[in-house]
Amino acid sequence: MYLMIEYIPFRGGKRPFSTAVRAGNNLYVSGQVGIDRETGAYPPTIEGQTKQAIINLKTVLEEQGYALSHVVKMVVILTRKEDIAAFNKIYAQYFVTNLPARTLMVVSGLVGEAIMELDAIAVKE
Questions:
Q1: Backbone φ, ψ for residue 37 (5° rounding)
Q2: What global pTM score does this model have?
Q3: Best exposed site among 13, 55, 83, 94 by fewest CB in 10 Å?
């Protein structure tokens, strides 16, 4: 059986990665940070960046015919352990049922002014 693979290029400049890769019914979405794609600004709080990163993820998913409800695996990266509760509060507003499997890690830094990043695997039947 042949598996169709499609690479969705990064928009907004040349980068050495794809925004997403579709492999059959699976969509692998590259890391999304809390940057406002229109203004280039990062909200100053974990709540603001979490909302914006989820909006960015949702946009990528919808452009490819997927929805947040199709997400089966999420990787979350935070730069501050003390932000976990605030992150979870916002995250839980978007992921209410059929909760994705999730990995959460805390690292010393991310690109730009990002204090969090998430990536996802979505699957459609």
A1: -65, -25
A2: 0.92
A3: 13
